[in-house]
Specification:
It contains seven helices and 13 strands. The chain is an alpha/beta fold.
């Protein structure tokens, strides 16, 4: 069983009718291995939503933490996730093989949003308002990584619990992914990218006041 875990500001009916993720899950409803746990009309930070599912021993062991503005373009999604988690402990669609001090994103080298060395990146991530959007090519997939894009993170809950890995509630909507990846690597978990086809409707909120505040908290926590 695979749990799709997400949070949305939309009411339940709106989520299923309007959101990219809701419409994608309706399309994939024939795959009975997929179950959903959606926090509707959500005001909690993402770590709180995600940690609740990690702690839950019932249901599926594989959890997919995913944004509500994501189209799942891949109708072999469940099969590809199962294969990915045979090789890696935590899986994403975009990431970097090497981390540099002060790095604020998997794809940026510093807070001025200078792109990381392309040779260190891995992934395929499409963007657009509609499914099957413009594809960004970030390097060979699969690849072992140090940081992964939080738009989609998948892991076995039992593995996370065994290694005491969870999301830090301090990073409510920004840097929760980098912090999670650092915690996972600190406990010797293997992170990697995989061939999972999605389209993300948003390019991110890099550089906003909230983002900047969480960046300094992230640096203060990890020291680099």
């Amino acid at each position: 069983m695979i749990e799709i875990v997400s949070a949305t500001r939309l009411a339940e009916a709106e989520f299923w009718a309007r959101s990219a993720l809701g419409m994608s899950l309706r399309r994939l409803a024939g795959d009975k291995r997929l179950r959903h746990h959606i926090s509707f009309e959500n005001r909690r930070g993402l770590p709180e939503v995600y940690n609740a599912r990690i702690a839950e021993e019932g249901g599926g062991d594989i959890a997919v933490f995913i944004h509500d503005d994501v189209w799942i373009d891949d109708y072999f999604f469940a099969d590809h996730l199962i294969d990915a988690l045979e090789r890696f402990d935590v899986v994403g669609v975009g990431g970097c093989r090497n981390r540099v001090p002060g790095q604020p994103s998997w794809c940026f080298a510093d807070e001025r949003m200078v792109q990381s060395d392309p040779t260190t990146l891995s992934g395929r991530v499409a963007h657009g308002k509609h499914p099957f959007g413009r594809i960004g090519y970030f390097g060979d997939v699969p690849a072992e990584c140090e940081l992964l894009d939080g738009v989609l993170l998948a892991a076995r809950k039992s593995r996370l619990r065994a290694q005491s890995v969870a999301f830090d509630p301090v990073f409510d909507f920004h840097f929760y992914d980098l912090d999670f990846c650092r915690s996972a690597r600190q406990r010797q978990l293997r992170l990697g990218t995989w061939r999972l086809c999605i389209t993300h409707q948003s390019e991110g909120a890099f550089g906003s006041d909230a983002w900047t505040a969480r960046y300094y908290q992230y640096i203060a926590k990890w020291g680099d």
